[in-house]
Amino acid sequence: MESNIIEENRIITSIANDPIFAKDDVDTRSSNLDVNHILETESQLSSQLHDLKNLKVLASLIKEFNTNLELLELENCYYSLQNLRKKLKENNEAFIKQSFHFQKSVVTYVDSLHVEFINKLYDIFSQGFWNITDDSIRFRSSIEWGDENFLLEHDLLLDLVKQLFCPGDTLDLHSWIIDDMEFGNDRDTVRTKIEDLHKNYILLNSLINPIKDKIFSKNALIKYTKKDDTIKFIVSESKPSVPMLFDCFQALCDFSLNTIPQSLLPILLKSIGKVLENELLKCVKNNAGEIIGRDNKDLKEHASKINDLFSTLSSKSQGNWSYHAHTIKDLLQDRQLYINLLVDEIYHRAVRDIRTTFEDKDENWRKTLKIQLSLQSDNGIQEVNTTSNSSIEENNEDNDWNWDADASSDHQSVHDKTATSKIVTEDEDDIADAWNEEIDFDMDLQSPKKFIDKSSIETPKKQNENEDHEDDGWDEAWDIGEEDDDLKEEHHAVGTEGKSIATESNNNANRLSSDSIDVTQLPTIFLNIIKKFRSECLNLEDDLTGNPYLTYKISLLQTTFFAISVAHCTEEWWSFYVDMREIWKNDNTNYRIQELTGRYLESNRLLRQKRVWKLIQDQFSEFHERENVPSWKMTLEDLLPFAHKEIITPLSNIKGIEAEVELLRFLDFLYNDSIISVILKWEVISEKNSENLGRLISLISDNTEIEILNNSPKYRECRAKFEMVGRFLPLHLKEIMDMFYNGDFYLFSTEEIVQWVKLLFADTPIRKDAISDICEIRQAALDDN
């Protein structure tokens, strides 16, 4: 017991004498030392020692990473860096205890290790395995890298990169190697480098893009050097010959088969395989005469060899490129196909000549010359290739206004079974509002309620209210009332303004009645081009007389010329029609030009007729809404000027029998479809609106007189009938019957006269008697005949 006490005192004395624990306020001679303080200090020292050990682990991992990087142990580098990141997270408490400056320094340094690792990988691929410049592409499957010349294998390193950054063949941009970095700039650098590594050396964009550029370049040649595993791009000063082009295809095949890693070949062929196939096919087609000719056996064999190489490449593409070798094989063996390709070559030269015509900055093709027009077309009116006018109003009953069949017979179009073309005309600026937007209106207007005047039904026009006195009512119906003075003045003002427009129209018609007409150089240019085309085709090795493919190409050439020309002739559409008409009048074998020209003329007329229809229906709406004081602005300022400027004058300008046919069709549409047929579908016409309609018809009739049609019986007949409607609309029943008894309605059928009487007058005994007289007199006339 005593010995234990002595030992304890000795230990306490030893500790007390230790300078580490010495304190000014401690009495070393006392045995009452602060044991708790000693234990606390010991704990602090143990904690510091633990933190230092953890920090030492970080230092060891950093050293391990740097060592692996120097030895190019890249996989070990990756995992060393990954462990380093894990340790930073696991020992976060010990790390946070350190000063802020220390923490920032460590984090910055570790981020720099990420950048250094990725840069090392990228440099090995971009400067080691691959060397891609504007002039060449070189690949090496194994390289010596670094100061110690460590040997690296491309396939092994590529597999490692895919494993680390592209799990499941998909680039992972949220991997720890990116997301665990602390500073944004370094993180962006690493992300960009990984993306570039994947894009350029896994997806091979750095290889594909220059190869495609050179394939599509007209003067680029490709040479392959097996010794250096390199393809070189050479710029040829002149256009490469066919053998030189085949050498380029051969070089790409050899480079792909002998140099490109087999693991990357499917990726490469997926992008350029179809391009190579199309370019080879185009090369063979464009040079068919040289390749497939009887005296070019070597070229044909070379083409066949490249075709076989493409088949071999396709078999190694793992389904990424399905090459159709039979296409080239058939092309090299089919004689008819060979001839067709020669025709294609001639056709493309003709199209180039057409395009060259319109590329002339001086536009010499626009120069005009005067030609004389015969009174009839060369082959009669049957040559007018316009389809019969589709009436906007269908199923018109009792319609005696359809005189298209007598004006002209429709041309039987020549159908082109091998090629069709849809020609779209461009709109002129000054009438853009008319048809830039589709005009939506009901072309089969069925008795619109807005034109029904209920007041006129309740108070019939010129009808005696007392129906018991039939004789008095009949007498009243025959009375002619005097017009109001204001109405007379308004009618006079409208008529005066309308006559001024009619006078201008007559002057234009006189000016356009000449037998000569201006045409541009287009007819001569095209006739020379198609003559040359036919001549070159017929001078080929085989006789192509009656060849269906040649016929198809001739038709296609006409369609192409028409489509290109119409895009440059938008200012005066009628002038373009005159040019096209001159072509098929000089050479009536140009059936396609004839067909397209007829459609072009008709489509321009129909397009403008839509605007006319809309304006007339708007005027009818005005009559309904304000029948007592309607506005005539849309007729005087819109309808009549538009009809003259955009329809009558252009159609008159084309002259010839075609002008007469189209003008008659327009007048039929204007008089019958747009006005008469619509009015006949009203349920009733009020007294005021009968006057308004009469004035409208008078205005339109006065302003649509076309002098060049004066010799046409159909023109005179349709105008006489139209004007007659305008005359009897405002009249009383007695006056209308007087006209009937005088034979003024000889142009109208019995049903038409009865329909007008029913529309204008209420159902009274007087009207019944009038209708009965009309039917009896007409029937008696028929019986006499």
Protein model, in words:
This protein is mostly helical and 785 residues long. 64% of the residues lie in helices and 4% in strands. A four-stranded antiparallel beta sheet has the order 1-2-6-5. Strands 3-4 form a two-stranded antiparallel ribbon. Strand 1 and strand 2 form a beta hairpin. Helix 2 packs antiparallel against helix 3 (74-90). The radius of gyration is 48 Å and the shape is elongated. Mean pLDDT is 78; it is low at 375-514. It comes from Maudiozyma saulgeensis. Residues 591-783 form the Retrograde transport protein Dsl1 C-terminal domain. One of its GO terms (cellular component) is cytoplasm.
List keywords for this structure.
two-stranded antiparallel ribbon, four-stranded antiparallel beta sheet, mainly alpha, single chain, elongated, 785 residues, Methane Monooxygenase Hydroxylase, Chain G, domain 1, Dsl1_C
Mean pLDDT level: 78
- In which range does the helix fraction lie? 55-70%
CATH architecture of the largest domain: Orthogonal Bundle
> Which shape, going by the Cα principal axes?
elongated
- Would you tell me the structural class of the helices and strands? mainly alpha
Gyration radius from CA atoms, angstroms? 48 Å
Low-confidence stretches: 375-514
CATH structural fold name of the largest domain = Tetracycline Repressor, domain 2
Residue fraction in strands: under 5%
- By DSSP, the count of extended strands is 8
CATH class type of the largest domain: Mainly Alpha
Main sheet summary = 4 strands, antiparallel
Assembly level: single chain
- In DSSP terms (H or I, runs of 4 or more residues), the helix count works out at 31
Number of domains: 4
* N- to C-terminal distance: 168 Å
Strand order in space, largest sheet: 1-2-6-5
